[in-house]
Write a structure and sequence with these properties.
By secondary structure, the chain is mainly beta. It contains one helix and ten strands. The strands form two sheets. The protein has a five-stranded antiparallel beta sheet with strand order 1-2-3-4-5, with no helix packed on it. The chain has a five-stranded antiparallel beta sheet with strand order 6-7-8-9-10, with no helix packed on it. It comes from Phocaeicola vulgatus.
C-alpha cells in the first residue's frame, strides 16, 4: 500500500554535506519514472527535478535535529526521548521518539540513529503511519562524487 520510492542518501565532510536522489514511479499505468535530487545544508534545501531541469530553494520550517549534539533546548522543543537501542543492517542504533509541530499539525516520529545518521524513520500523524523509510545498504568511506552536492548545469530556478 502507498507509493514505493527508492533513494540514495549521500553524506560527505562528516555529515556537513547531505544530498539524496530519489526515483519514483508516477502516472499509474504509464509507469513513468521521476528523478529528484535534494541538497541540504543546515536549514537550507534545494530540490531539483532532474527530468524537467528545474529547481527550488527553500528554508526548512524546522531546523534538522543534530543527533550527535542533542542540546536540552532541542530535546525539549521536539519532546525527544531516547527509548532504547536496536540493530539495523548490523549497526547498533539508538532509538528516539520525537514530535514536530508545524502549521498547527503535529507529527510523531520514531528514528533509529547510527553515528548521527537515521537508518530508519517512521512518521505518523493522527494515529496513522504516513511515511516509513529504512536504509537497505550502507557503504562506509565510499567516494562520493562532488557533483552530487551541486545543482547540475542547465537547471533553472523559477
Amino acid at each position: 500500500m502507498g507509493q514505493k520510492v527508492q533513494g540514495v542518501q549521500y553524506f560527505d565532510d562528516y555529515g556537513r554535506k547531505e544530498a539524496s536522489e530519489l526515483t519514483m514511479k508516477v502516472g499509474g499505468v504509464a509507469n513513468v519514472e521521476k528523478h529528484i535530487r535534494t541538497i541540504a545544508d543546515g536549514d537550507k534545501i534545494i530540490s531539483i527535478d532532474l527530468d524537467m531541469k528545474v529547481a527550488n530553494k527553500a528554508t526548512l520550517p524546522v531546523k534538522p535535529v543534530n543527533y550527535l549534539n542533542l542540546t536540552d533546548e532541542v530535546r525539549e522543543l521536539h519532546k525527544i526521548k531516547e527509548v532504547g537501542t536496536e540493530e539495523i543492517l548490523g549497526r547498533k542504533c539508538t532509538k528516539y521518539t520525537l514530535e514536530v509541530v508545524y502549521g498547527g499539525q503535529t507529527t510523531y516520529s520514531t528514528v533509529w540513529i547510527w553515528k548521527g545518521i537515521p537508518l530508519k524513520n517512521e512518521t505518523s500523524s493522527n494515529g496513522m503511519v504516513i511515511v516509513t523509510e529504512q536504509a537497505t545498504e550502507i557503504q562506509e568511506n565510499a567516494e562520493v562524487p562532488a557533483m552530487k552536492f551541486l545543482v547540475p548545469e542547465g537547471v533553472t530556478f523559477p
